[in-house]
Amino acid sequence: MEQPAYKIILRRDFTSLQKTDHSEKIAKAIDRLKAFEPPDGYYLAFSGGKDSLCIYHLAKMAGVKFDAHYNVTGIDPPELVYFIRDNYPDVIFDSPGITMWELIVKKRMPPTRVVRYCCQHLKERGGIGRFVVTGVRWAESARRKNSRAMVELNSSSKRQVMLNNDNDEARRMMETCVMKGKHILNPIIEWTDTDVWTFIKSRGISYCKLYDEGFTRLGCIACPMAGPKGMERELARYPKFRALYLKAFEKMIAARRERGLSCDFFTDPETVMQWWIYGTKKKGQMES
User: Region 146-155: what's the mean pLDDT?
Assistant: First the structure.
């Protein structure tokens, strides 16, 4: 039986964790939440995954005002949706007004690792005009480490501000936010996976059971960012979603033909599915 992701991570990084005062990271995250608390409270982006569990409970510990929002994508694992409903009744469910299936037809192509239009329409809509708290962490990807700051401001100002308790002058605490109409606070941006799981386990915080079944990430079913093996696994586990994708691909092909667009790699729904997961030697989403 595949071991839960958190057990593997905690065992692997235990030595490095001993060298880090985890309580200092918790205190720092709480201080950040207190330092930037807006009068109307935070908009807390809640996905039900391990990182959003941390920021939710840290906000509670900080005693700051916030309202938590879950963007209903319609393609998240059912287990995750039930977990949120059962354990976080105060979380607000926000609907995007468009489904993934409609987006695929509208864009006339599936979302890819490079063209991630789904995130913009399904996950990143909320919080306009608000100060948004997210669980973004540098450890999640090299791209995030190079592009995301602890505080991101929607402002033309180039001024960069340090928090009093953040003495690492190499880390910029503020930057101009490219997301229109919102400020963003990432209070656990430097946390490792070990920090996240230590926080959750040491406080007895309930988490979605999919983590105990070998899942290391929770999110949209068959997200291209999961890679071919991850997409295969999720589509096999949720065959009804695979059928919905195929139905959307069929409508997408019709929309492409109607617009006179090339269908070289989109001859039929199953061909689209294979291209989407694996790509091809000539051209494919994994190489684009």
Answer: 52
- Residue 9 and residue 206: Cα distance in Å, rounded? 18
Please report where in the chains the tokens 């070998």 appear, as a residue: 214
Q: For residue 5, what pLDDT band results from cuts at 50, 70 and 90?
A: low
Which residues on adjacent β-strands are paired with residue 66? 42
The answer, yes or no, to whether residue 158 has pLDDT greater than 50, is: no
What is the rounded CA–CA span in Å between residue 288 and residue 286? Answer: 6
Model pLDDT, residue 264: 81
Q: Range of 241's domain?
A: 224-278
Output the six-digit token pair for 204. 């007895």
Record the pTM. 0.79
Tell me, yes or no, whether 219 lies in a domain. no
Q: CA-to-CA distance for 130 and 40, rounded, in angstroms?
A: 8
Domain end among 160, 180, 213: 213
Segment (H or E) for 35: helix 22-35
Residue 27 lies in a domain: yes
Joined tokens for residue 19: 């060298």
pLDDT, average across residues 99-103: 94
Closest by alpha carbon to 220, among 196, 244, 194, 200? Answer: 244
Q: How far is the C-alpha of 15 from the C-alpha of 267, rounded, in Å?
A: 53
Give the span between the Cα atoms of 170 and 148, in whole angstroms: 14
Q: Residue 16: which pLDDT band, with cuts at 50, 70 and 90?
A: very low
Q: What token pair was written down for 166?
A: 């953040």
Look at residue 26 and tell me whether its pLDDT is greater than 80.
Answer: yes
| Number of residues assigned to the chain | 288
Please report, for residues 111, 224, 288, the alpha-carbon distance to residue 115 in angstroms, rounded to integers and kept in the order given. Answer: 6, 10, 9
**CA–CA distance, 72 with 77 (Å, rounded to integer):** 11
DSSP 171: S
